[in-house]
Amino acid sequence: TAPTPMPCDVGKYSPSKNSTACTDCDAGKYANSFGSTTCTDCGVGKYANSARSTTCTDCDAGKYSPSTGNAACADCAAGKYWPGKVAVACIDCGVGTYTPSTGSTTCTICDAGKYSPTGSVTCTAPTPMPCDVGKYSPSKNSTACTDCDAGKYANSFGSTTCTDCGVGKYANSARSTTCTDCDAGKYSPSTGNAACADCAAGKYWPGKVAVACIDCGVGTYTPSTGSTTCTICDAGKYSPTGSVTCTAPTPMP
User: Fold this and answer.
1) How far, in whole angstroms, is CA 66 from its chain's centroid?
2) CB burial class (10 A; 0-12, 13-18, 19+) of residue 93?
3) Torsion, Cα of 70, 76, 77, 78 (10° steps)
4) Per-residue model confidence (pLDDT) at position 112
5) How many beta carbons lie within 10 A of that of residue 193, not counting itself?
6) Ranges of the chain whose pLDDT falls below 70
């Protein structure tokens, strides 16, 4: 007599229920019930690394399986990681982190002074950039630039020093790219000044870029600071040079 068909064991299948021969499920597939007529592909994020599997295994941390029916999980590529299980894809290392290895479960933070974009396998020192105008760096390889102090300026990119404003000029704020002429009635006798000084009372300056102010002449005066001109004394009064007022002459005996 013909043998009585037996249901296939788990991990095996037979396309015909009347068959007396069962076939092992291939790696990447499984059958978890008796009498299976087909095997089922392992789902994404899972694998079965041997024939005749009855279940599939989750991919370990640092590995992934993007499609069904896989016999193994792939390592995350360098620059990527996965911290848990059942990965369909790995994650790029974030900005400022890296991993040079495959199969990573985490990324490493870059050392101080180095950086990395997303998905990096290493960190690098930033490429030196020329300092902007109004800034300087004493080292051409520096990545940090400093604002020029008030009274100084830098009018070109990549400056390694700042220049003092000349006499008769000033720069009243940091990061200046040029200096400004002193206004009339003001002066700057030295270099590197952040402001111009008012002409003293009894002195004046009618134009710009003054290094010093001029004494009011005989018969003229100014009681104010910052004067651009001097006033002529009233009739009957006089003044020597540099006067702040005019006076009536002292009566003679």
Assistant:
1) 35
2) buried
3) -160
4) 79
5) 24
6) 1-5, 17-19, 140-143, 251-253
